[in-house]
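Translate sequence into structure tokens.
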Amino acid sequence: MVVSSTAINSIPTNSILLIHGGESVLADRALAEALTLRSDFEKTVLDGSGLEPGRYGEAVAPSLFADKRVVVVRDLQDVIVEVQEEIEALFESVDPNLHLIFIHKGGVKGKGLLDKIKKLKPEIISCEPMKRASDKEAFVREEFTRHGRKISSGAVSALVDATGSDTRELAAACSQIAFDTNAGKAVIDEDDIAKYYQGRVEASGFDVADATLAGDPRGALIALRNALDTGTDPIMIVSALTSSIRTLAKVSGAPRNANAFQLAGSLGLAPWQIDKARRQLSKWSPALIAFSVQELSKADVAIKGAEADPLYALERSVVAIASKVGAR
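Result follows.
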């Protein structure tokens, strides 16, 4: 959401932009669009985490060589106290030809400076993390609209399920699917999403998922090592596993005698996915689904840097899930 207001005192309207929130893909896009609007400005980008006293003042000082300038301060929350004071002190003497863009990841760190910036009535672009499925689904619809394509409600849900919590991956998938799907097709549907994930980089990830959900620890481990050896990103493997577990959870709560085609729309799944999940559910229980979700959360954190040997952590989670399934 963008909230604009007229600037006060000597600061020109829209000469200060605050990009606020922890959703990095949205923040990066907001910055790119802001700089595109200021394409004829001389640009200076400062990293707040390493910004030394005096450097900001030097960047915003009047220039003899550029009529229009924009200074970007990334990671505003990490600016040290001395630089915070420097930024605040220079608000009263902003060059009329200078635009300022501040990027803050959210949270309480650096809130004092953030509040002072907000008092200047900047243009604000909110980039809060998309935690709810409904937020991600709205994001997907907007992405396909940006690419000039239409997508069905079932396909939106399937895509959100397939990509998990990674918004950057979700944005990339939207772009690729919009480009790859036949331009003559009026509406992108669940089958197009399934084809994308079956035929592209997650194909080997789903091989790992199939063996894991079948309760075959040895087969799951072999599939995992083959996937890694052929270049499949561990994040994509976790995404495939998470997607498969979520499908089980959805189908487990649906009426058993309902036709797969009737359930497809309400569950956001293709009929073949429902039939497949029903076959797999014979070895699964609600407790096992909950256990698997916890294990995959640990693996996700591990492969993103929380453990010294992330691939071993991934192997451990895959084997733990497959072993529990196989023991039933």
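Note: The first helix runs from residue 24 to 37.
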